[in-house]
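re: the backbone from monday

yeah here it is again, tokenized this time
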């Protein structure tokens, strides 16, 4: 009898323990938290609600409801894609894509794609975008028009991922790798272009130097011509001065009085011409003056 009472007592304790455990499970199972950088998808008997659950503490119906957490922080996907250019050159493209899940479309992504959207959406979209863009350009254009190529790749990837509610933050194309033979051909072409440019610059330099020599020669010739004109002008001036001096000397030699008085002069009497002894008359006047 006593043993039976003990068994009943233990059964009650065990029942209350199970009840308490279930109560605790129900209480703690009715609340959940969503951390920053996450969004929740609330499932009721497996069906996702259309509204994403924001970060914080939330309530759910135990057993009937469950929660799937989705990361909406920026993720980085790096890959190498092999493709062919327009001229059938093999190109290996190294690319890094930063993207994140659209927080407002978390429930839609989970319902249509699931949590493995990187493998199912991101990787194929990047590969297909690179291949489709590379096929539009020759290998040489991929090098010379790199900004345009990058722009096309970025737009293609954004469009493809955007259709699946994935937002592209940034895309980095770190390198284009070509075959060794193509690299050698590009290097040879660049070298040839540089040599041609150098030859062209040399021709321009030679032409300029020749023009400078011509200008210098013309300047020297003009200088000599001006110098000759100046010398000729100087000689002409000197010659004219000499001629003037010679005429003056000749004039002085003819017209200048030599200091001797004429011995005889003719009278101006119209009826007769009488020659007077001037010298004798002057001497007689001087004697008379001295006598007196």
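seq for it, each position gets an aa:
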């Amino acid at each position: 009898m006593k043993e039976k009472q003990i068994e009943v007592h233990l059964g009650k304790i065990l029942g209350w323990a199970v009840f308490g455990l279930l109560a605790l499970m129900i209480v703690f199972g009715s609340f959940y938290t969503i951390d920053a950088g996450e969004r929740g998808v609330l499932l009721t008997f497996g069906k996702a609600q259309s509204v994403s659950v924001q970060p914080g503490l939330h309530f759910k119906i135990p057993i009937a409801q469950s929660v799937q957490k989705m990361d909406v922080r920026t993720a980085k996907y790096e890959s190498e894609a092999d493709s062919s250019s327009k001229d059938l050159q093999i190109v290996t493209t190294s690319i890094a894509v930063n993207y994140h899940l659209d927080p407002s479309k978390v429930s839609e992504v989970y319902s249509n794609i699931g949590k493995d959207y990187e493998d199912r959406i991101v990787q194929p979209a990047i590969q297909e975008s690179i291949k489709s863009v590379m096929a539009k350009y020759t290998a040489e254009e991929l090098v010379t028009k790199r900004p345009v190529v990058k722009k096309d790749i970025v737009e293609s990837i954004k469009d493809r991922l955007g259709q699946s509610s994935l937002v592209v933050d940034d895309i980095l194309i770190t390198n284009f790798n070509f075959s060794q033979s193509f690299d050698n051909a590009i290097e040879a072409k660049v070298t040839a272009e540089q040599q041609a440019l150098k030859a062209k610059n040399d021709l321009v330099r030679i032409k300029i130097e020749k023009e400078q020599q011509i200008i210098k020669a013309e300047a020297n010739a003009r200088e000599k011509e001006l110098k000759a004109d100046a010398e000729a002008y100087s000689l002409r001036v000197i010659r004219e001065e000499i001629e003037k001096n010679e005429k003056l000397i000749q004039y002085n030699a003819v017209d200048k009085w030599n200091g001797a008085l004429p011995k005889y002069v003719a009278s101006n009497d119209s009826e007769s011409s009488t020659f007077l002894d001037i010298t004798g008359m002057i001497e007689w006047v001087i004697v008379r003056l001295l006598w007196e």
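DSSP finds seven helices and ten strands in the chain. The longest strand covers residues 90-101.
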